[in-house]
Amino acid sequence: MKLKDVLAVSGKPGLYKFVSQARNGIIVEGVTDQKRMVVLSTTKVSALGDIAIYTATEEVPLKDIFKKIYEKEGGKATISHKSDDTSLKKILEEIQPDYDKSRVYVSDIRKVINWYNLLTEQNLFDPNEKEEEEVTTDTAETGEKTTDEKASKVSKTLPKSKQTSKSIKRPEGKSATQSKTAGGKSKGGSASKKPSI
Question: Is the pLDDT of residue 100 over 60?
């Protein structure tokens, strides 16, 4: 299963995969318990493949972070996401020393570790997974880059107003991770003190 097909649902623990469209949202299935539920179109949903971690110079895709943990742990699960703050910070520092400590909070690290462990325990993470190629072209009028890529199942089924969702929210754009829109541009943070994924 590719990370773009694994979903984090705001307010719900665990990870999910898309099953089908529902009348007022989408139907998802838990990757660990296979239980299905309807996610309303007003709920924020993020594909793990669209999430990145802030560093001092750039945003590192979550897939790359997972791959580094995978290599460090020899393909096995890592420490529990319930470990103490010091241990959680230490593991991220070991695999990504330049992560932005002012924007990546312990709560964000807990989510990353929890997601990695869930995927590893279910044999759903493939470190050699190759993403679909993106075609990048210059826009004549603005000079900006535009990305032409296949929209995900989730983007197709959610209303346009919900296609740009964030999985981790921070006050005034201070998000440790952020998801991309269907067009490839990333969004800033939104106001909420404690994320609840």
Answer: yes
